[in-house]
Amino acid sequence: MNDKEKLPEERAEEFKILANEAFKVHKFSQAIDLYTQAIELNPHNAVYWANRAISHTKLEEYGSALQDATKAIDVDPRYSKGYYRRGAAYLAMGKFKEALKDFQQVKRLCPNDPDANKKLKECDKAVQKIRFEEAIASSDSEKRSIADSIDFCSIEVEPSYTGARIEGEVVTLDFVKKMIEDFKKQKCLHKRYAFQIVLQTREMLRAMASLVDVTIPNGKHFTVCGDIHGQFYDLLNIFELNGLPSEENPYLFNGDFVDRGSFSLECILTLFAFKCMSPSGMYLSRGNHESKSMNKIYGFEGEVRSKLNETFVGLFAEVFCCLPLAHVLNNKVFVVHGGLFSVDGVKLPDIRAIDRFCEPPEEGLMCELLWSDPQAQPGRGPSKRGVGLSFGGDVTKRFLQENNLDLVVRSHEVKDEGYEIEHDGKLITVFSAPNYCDQMGNKGAYIRFEAPHMKPDIVSFSVVPHPDVKPMAYANNFLRMFS
Question: Which residues are catalytic?
Answer without folding.
Answer: 289
